[in-house]
Design goal:
about 85% helix, 17 helices, mainly alpha
């Protein structure tokens, strides 16, 4: 039921692991698209803008949750690659304890702070109430986000990328059904969309936990392995917290950028929302390749097979660049038609803004491919603190665009924020990768 990525063709292993992940990410983005489509079509442009105005804040917090869980899974991948299953289970139990504590603290803090943050972000007055109702419910669901992502990270560390996808698909289908019911047949409005997301994530996380417990005997801990181990917790935090902060620091730049876009009015926010949702769908392959390289790097470092790291990196990079070219062509041909799923055909100015956003971003998708591949590979090798510095580079770029260029050049400047962030991050990540590779070889005494 597990997959050993320390032997065999790197290209075959990467494809075999990433394709199920891609399928899951696509389904996740599909239900996000449907969620946005239903909100825009049936609740109106202001409701769409309200949901979109929370996107950066949502990523700031939810991204931290996901990053922490992915980081917690790295020591497990190392232990699995080394064949140390007792250590794997002990790390797993301590990761569960930490995740529960993080979830409680973050839920309380964000439930209290979300409205002041929206005000600080200069969310337009005509959408701030709906934005608050939406994001408050999302933040109340932080525990179920930890539940799914921790279980999925544990299972992926064993080389199984399929089981989490099955339950992600379940969440996607359930979310769509609940969106239709709660938005079209109740008066909840955008709160219905948020509630649908939280319920579907809770069902998915619980199902994944029960199924994985029954499927993987390797995950059944003894009484000794269930004990609290402060050194293990320190190691887990050393991996997880930097990865979580990487997402959050990156998102701080997005929050600042979103604040600048908010000053342009709800139409600009709606265009950025629609363009962002479409772009996220097309970026799923980069997410899948990145997650694949985290597990690939972790297992091979655990097995001390460092020579396989470089070959895997080359194979993954080739796949990323080829897809980036394909995505640019597809968005060039169909970008306007995709925008019409979110706004009325008569909203020509918004459609053109969405198309501009998509074309500028997709022209730099190869840079995004390397951000994901290199960053996750470094993290999988055990150097998650470098992720923070990469996040700082992205934050700096988005902050620069938000403060210096959007007020002067308007929406077109905002379209260059992500490409600038990817370029800044790559300028740091490539030297970091070669440094980490050399250091790992020296540490493991590999020629």
């Amino acid at each position: 039921m597990t997959k050993d990525m320390t032997s065999g063709s790197p290209m075959k292993l990467i494809l075999g692991f990433s394709v199920p992940l891609l399928f899951g990410f696509l389904f996740q983005q599909f239900y996000n698209l449907v969620d946005t489509l239903i909100v825009g079509r049936f609740l109106g442009l202001e409701a769409l803008a309200a949901v979109g105005s929370t996107g950066a804040l949502n990523f700031l917090i939810i991204g931290f949750c996901m990053g922490v869980c992915n980081g917690f899974a790295i020591p497990l991948a190392h232990k699995f690659g080394a064949g140390d299953y007792r250590g794997l289970r002990a790390f797993m139990m301590n990761a569960i304890y930490l995740a529960a504590a993080f979830a409680v603290v973050m839920t309380v803090a964000m439930a209290v702070l979300c409205r002041p943050i929206l005000q600080w972000m200069q969310t337009p007055d005509n959408i701030i109430d709906e934005a608050y109702h939406y994001i408050f419910i999302i933040f109340v669901g932080i525990p179920v986000i930890y539940l799914y992502n921790l279980v999925a990270g544990i299972v992926r560390s064993l080389g199984d990328s399929k089981t989490p996808v099955v339950f992600l698909v379940l969440a996607s289908v359930l979310n769509i059904v609940l969106d239709i019911v709660l938005i079209l047949y109740t008066s909840l409005g955008v709160a219905g969309a948020a509630l649908a997301t939280v319920i579907s994530q809770g069902v998915s996380g619980t199902g994944c936990l029960i199924y994985s417990w029954k499927k993987f005997d390797i995950l059944h801990p003894s009484a000794e392995e269930r004990s609290v181990n402060t050194s293990y917790m320190a190691s887990l935090c050393g991996m997880g917290v930097p990865m979580g902060l990487q997402y959050s620091i990156t998102a701080i730049g997005s929050v600042i950028l979103q604040s600048a876009v908010n000053t342009l009015g709800s139409n600009a926010v709606a265009a950025m929302t629609a363009g962002g949702k479409i772009g996220m769908f097309f970026c799923c392959p980069f997410d899948a390749l990145g997650s694949t390289m985290a597990t690939y790097g972790g297992q091979n470092v655990g097995a001390k097979k460092i020579e396989r790291i470089s070959s895997g990196f080359k194979c993954c990079s080739l796949l990323g660049v080829l897809y980036a070219i394909l995505a640019f062509g597809l968005l060039g041909l169909f970008g306007r038609q995709l925008a019409m799923f979110f706004v009325e055909r008569s909203d020509t100015a918004i459609i053109e803004d969405v198309y501009l956003f998509l074309m500028i971003n997709s022209a730099f998708y190869s840079m995004l491919a390397f951000v994901n591949i290199v960053r996750f590979l470094i993290q999988g090798m055990g150097y998650s603190k470098f992720a923070i510095l990469a996040g700082v580079c992205e934050m700096a770029a988005r902050t620069l665009i938000g403060f210096a260029f959007v007020p002067v050049f308007g929406f077109p400047a905002a379209c260059f924020a992500s490409p600038a962030a990817w370029i800044f991050a790559d300028l740091f990540l490539f030297p970091a990768y070669f440094h980490v590779l050399k250091k790992t070889k020296q540490m493991l005494h590999v020629a």
